């Protein structure tokens, strides 16, 4: 009888222990279910479509340049993108240059929710790297910062704003800095440069890139205008100068509108123009439709189209 009771006690104890173990397993499994999912692709080399923001050669505008980038196993996408941005355009990416001062280094990038905290070396402050008026220098400082902001926000889907930290003493530690040190003005009364979002105002658009060569023509800065026209239909530089200096010298323009086609590779600019001929006679033309082509990451005026509408107007008035 005692043996039966002892056996029953052992069975009962064993059942209790098994029940407790199974509860622990259930609890552990439940805890594991709350862990973030592991993306198996991170352990493999992968290709990503990245939009880099470089500076249009000779101009204070950023242009988006799409590139296919290979990212190594477990390599941080944000840091990879930043390092390639600092390296600048490739040989087969013409008409653009880096907006970032020489010798800038990316030291660290950290994600805080959807904000990337990017630490850069002190060279980003650009001491001695910029020329021009004080206003132009401040703008170019901001543009170098927005090259990082726009590239990261456009290329890493988890990032919608970026905080810039600077290693001001070469210690390897990033610190917040005054907005004035990077060409910015005080933000909401803060003494520090706050996280920034993508800035479209610094980016080249159809309107801006059509207006730029016309502005150069009105100022008789013909070399600046020449490099912004569509190259495939452009005459040699001397013929270009002769036309816009002697035959039809533009003195005023208005961009009345722009029209893009469905695939965004061409379009038309609607222009109001005033110019003089070699004898000083004044001509005006309103609502002229001039072709534009997308080439070298921007929209460019078509030289035969522009000169053609101007010469037609001259001939009508002879």
SSE layout:
Elements: H1 2-33, E1 46-56, E2 62-71, H2 77-87, E3 96-97, E4 106-112, E5 115-121, H3 134-155, E6 161-167, H4 206-218, H5 222-226, H6 237-247, E7 249-260, E8 266-276, E9 282-295, E10 298-301, H7 303-316
Parallel strand pairs: 5-6
Antiparallel strand pairs: 1-2, 1-3, 4-5, 7-8, 8-9, 9-10
Helix pairs in contact: 2-3
Structure explained in plain terms:
With 318 residues, the chain is of the alpha+beta class. The protein folds into two domains: 43-182, no CATH class; 206-316, Nuclear Transport Factor 2, Chain: A (Roll), CATH 3.10.450. Helix content is 34%, strand content 27%. It contains seven helices and ten strands. The strands form three sheets. Strands 7-8-9-10 form a four-stranded antiparallel beta sheet. α2 (77-87) packs antiparallel against α3 (134-155). It is elongated, with a radius of gyration of 31 Å. The protein starts with a helix and ends with a helix. Residues 22-32 have low confidence and may be disordered.
